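Case 241 in the screening queue. Each case pairs one protein sequence with one candidate compound; here the compound is magnesium ion. For every case the pipeline is the same: read the inputs, emit a complex structure as tokens, and attach any notable structural observations.

Predict complex for case 241.
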Amino acid sequence: MIKAEGLTLQYGSGTVAAKDVSFEIGEGEIVGFAGPNGAGKTTVIKMITGILKPTEGKASICGFDIVKQPLEAKRKFAYISDNPDVMLQLTGAEYINFIADIYQVPATDRRTRIKNLAERFKINDKLGIQMREYSHGMRQKVMIISSLVHEPDVWILDEPMTGLDPAASYELKQLMKEQVAKGKAVLFSTHVLEVAEKLCDRIMIIDKGVIVYSGTVDELMEENSGKGLEEIFIALTSGDA
Ligand SMILES: Nc1ncnc2c1ncn2[C@@H]1O[C@H](COP(=O)(O)OP(=O)(O)O)[C@@H](O)[C@H]1O
Ligand SMILES: [Mg+2]
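Case 241 output:
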């Protein structure tokens, strides 16, 4: 469902933030993308979602090339960026409906979906308030709800747990599990290893723009017997996470 082939990105400043990144994520698979700060997670995610154009390589979602067939590809996935501070002049409800309009979600479907999700995240009584009055976590909840109104086949989330309280974080993890149970694909970045360890079929670890590990947590632990996951992670990466 998500395919990256040799993705490379050099920023104007000269920094090579991603180098020859290739992977494939299939139906019903949940993959955690781990790496220290500045490793290149956001850069890779932005190339997959069409926000950044790769210097080299290509990416596709459900078979649609994100550069050559951007509309077809974008209909298939939802993306939550690492910054929920967008369109703060809108109320939560206005923002969610704006996104639902873009994806042409029928009125009745969207009402039930929004109601269910807003109740799960305990934000239903706050949706009428402008988002500038929200906390970071509340904005993040609105981003999560709006990303699911069109029932995407592929869900891509950049550091989604940041700022969420334990109950919301739990709901988000449940939602990810529900998505994969329905045969959808989930890719999320995190620097919190425990989250990746508990949730994922597979993890990818990136350091200095290069994927240094891709496989299950169990395999990684077996290869490095006697060491804890945190220790292995620090040894694999530059150690400044
Ligand atoms: N717009 C930009 N211009 C120049 N360099 C950037 C830009 N965005 C990120 N970088 C650099 O690219 C590298 C990877 O950053 P990023 O993808 O944001 O990492 P991560 O999400 O893993 O923390 C870092 O060295 C960062 O400083
Ligand atoms: Mg990032």
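Case 241 observations:
- The longest helix spans residues 166-181.
- The domain at 2-85+151-164+171-236 is CATH 3.40.50.300 (Rossmann fold).
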